């Protein structure tokens, strides 16, 4: 999935971590490439923040090792690591001005005064806070505090910038804006960003690579597109985006990667790169926007899964419907509006037949 | 709502009346008396005089005052040196342990401090437990004189007043968000620098209120100086008591009291400024 042509800037190797008796990470491995924007995504308690704190040096390892740019830093204390963190609640020092907050890291390194004030002003301009240097954190809005926190971290020119749920405290509009700004900053600085979030939408829109975690284990890693379009297992499929999941039984192998399978009592052609034998059980995943819907009128016959419209929600761009199949299973379906048909709509209780674009389905191993 | 409002005004009114009668009024009287003239038969004569304040500068009293400030100041410093680490350790244990340790800090309050001062006499006296034990093991031949000197007074002041230092320090250390320390560490700051630039300024309100709660009572604890201090180690409290009860120079005693109040006012002002420097203690 990732090329080895670029060097790993962070390499976690067989890391164990437990709090008291609760195991958080068990033999955890992770490589982060230089210059990429990686997102650790997972539900709360999945260990993603622990991974971040281990990289920062704020947690010690029970076992395993961590290397930064090829050098083992397992025993190196946080203050000596060339890594900086933007904390979830920013942790700006309330008694210091914006300038002093941002200059803090440089002052610990005994950088000359003139150099400090030059660099602080540069970084303030970069986060669009020029003129705010004499304010105290309490006098800033949430978004401004966030920028100060980022400025305070990036001024030290870290090899890796760690961001711990850094946008979760902002309101929706500001969050969108900060997402774009973070992307811009990352391109501008060329620093590796490791971003932790539980918000899948945020992860999809910002990352070069997403690492999906659950229960201290990596479920899948790949580009946002790979994660969304070809999830590796049911957890990833359910966690990222909406999905309809069917149980299917393979009936017959056709040529190539095509198989005939029985889904909800109907026969469909499915595509899978893994070798399947007749009688094998699999999950078939279909995103709401991959499904196609056709109304059945006058008792006509249509191919596909047959059901009735249970709910329909106008979403502006799309029409989202819930379809109840005759078996009782409910499906989410999302259709784009057809410009040629202004009256495009479904009435509740309408009989419909559902199919999908061939080969857009994702076949996953059976998990019970 | 109406009943609630009436209750509110009743409580506020009661409290205000109480404070006016028992705090404001007596203090105003003390201030008034400090500007009057002493009278042998009537105690005071309502004639304006600053004699009381001028006597503060009399070398005889000035020496005693300065020595008293030194005793209380040294005790406060010791309390801070012992109390800060203690408060830090308590604040960084588990919640259950914190409750237990704070309980231990408060337990001595259950015994009157006068009785505890007598206890020190029993323990540290020439024939006290410490000297007896040391002589019995043969470490010393004659008892060490631990009472009736400067260090006895300072020791007793520290012993009695230490909880008043630890409690406010604990509360401000406990309120200090941990992620400030982590942020400082993350930005390359070692423990000493973090303490100097982050921890100390942010716990300064606790330091000041602790010092306030130790220093001012220390100046007034005349019975400690009486019981343990011998002749040369008087506290301002001793002089005030003597002026009011023995020498019967009320204006001078009152002037001394006003001086104490003024010192408290200055320290409260410093406390307020420290709080303001932290932006009203904006947390998290």
UniProtKB/TrEMBL annotation, chain A:
Q: Which UniProt keywords apply?
A: ATP-binding, Cell membrane, Membrane, Nucleotide-binding, Translocase, Transport
Q: EC no.?
A: 7.6.2.11
Fetch the SMART domains from UniProt: AAA
Please give the Gene3D superfamilies that the UniProt record associates with this protein: 2.40.50.100, P-loop containing nucleotide triphosphate hydrolases
Domain annotation ABC transporter: ranges? 10-240
Reaction(s) the record says it catalyses: ATP + H2O + polyamine-[polyamine-binding protein]Side 1 = ADP + phosphate + polyamineSide 2 + [polyamine-binding protein]Side 1
Q: Does the keyword Plastid apply?
A: no
- Record has Heme as a keyword: no
Instruction: Return the CDD domains for the record.
Output: ABC_PotA_N
Which branch of life, at top level?
Bacteria
Which PROSITE patterns does the record cross-reference, listed alphabetically? ABC_TRANSPORTER_1, ABC_TRANSPORTER_2
Membrane-traversing stretches: none
Kindly give the InterPro entries that the UniProt entry links to this protein.
AAA+_ATPase (IPR003593), ABC_SmlMolc_Importer (IPR050093), ABC_transporter-like_ATP-bd (IPR003439), ABC_transporter-like_CS (IPR017871), Mo/tungstate-bd_C_term_dom (IPR008995), P-loop_NTPase (IPR027417), PotA-like (IPR005893), PotA_ATP-bd (IPR017879)
Q: Name one Pfam family in it.
A: ABC_tran
Instruction: Outline what the protein does.
Output: Part of the ABC transporter complex PotABCD involved in spermidine/putrescine import. Responsible for energy coupling to the transport system.
Share what the entry says about its subunit structure, partners included: The complex is composed of two ATP-binding proteins (PotA), two transmembrane proteins (PotB and PotC) and a solute-binding protein (PotD).
Similarity field: Belongs to the ABC transporter superfamily. Spermidine/putrescine importer (TC 3.A.1.11.1) family.
Q: What is this protein called?
A: Spermidine/putrescine import ATP-binding protein PotA
Annotated source species: Ferrimonas pelagia
Gene name of the record: potA
From TrEMBL, chain B:
Note the topology in the membrane. Answer: Multi-pass membrane protein
Checking SUPFAM superfamilies in the record gives: MetI-like
Which InterPro entries does this entry report, sorted A to Z?
A: MetI-like (IPR000515), MetI-like_sf (IPR035906)
**CDD domains from the UniProt entry:** TM_PBP2
Q: Name all ABC transmembrane type-1 domain ranges.
A: 65-271
Which residue windows are transmembrane per the record? 12-36, 64-87, 99-119, 152-173, 194-215, 252-271
Q: Which UniProt keywords apply?
A: Cell membrane, Membrane, Transmembrane, Transmembrane helix, Transport
Location of this chain's protein in the cell: Cell membrane
Pfam families listed in its UniProt record? BPD_transp_1
Main site of residence? membrane
Q: Which PANTHER family match?
A: INNER MEMBRANE ABC TRANSPORTER PERMEASE PROTEIN YDCU-RELATED, INNER MEMBRANE ABC TRANSPORTER PERMEASE PROTEIN YDCU-RELATED-RELATED
Q: Which family does it belong to?
A: Belongs to the binding-protein-dependent transport system permease family. CysTW subfamily.
NCBIfam families per record? PRK09497.1
Q: Name it.
A: Spermidine/putrescine ABC transporter permease PotB
What is the organism field in this record?
A: Ferrimonas pelagia
User: Lineage in the entry?
Assistant: Bacteria, Pseudomonadati, Pseudomonadota, Gammaproteobacteria, Alteromonadales
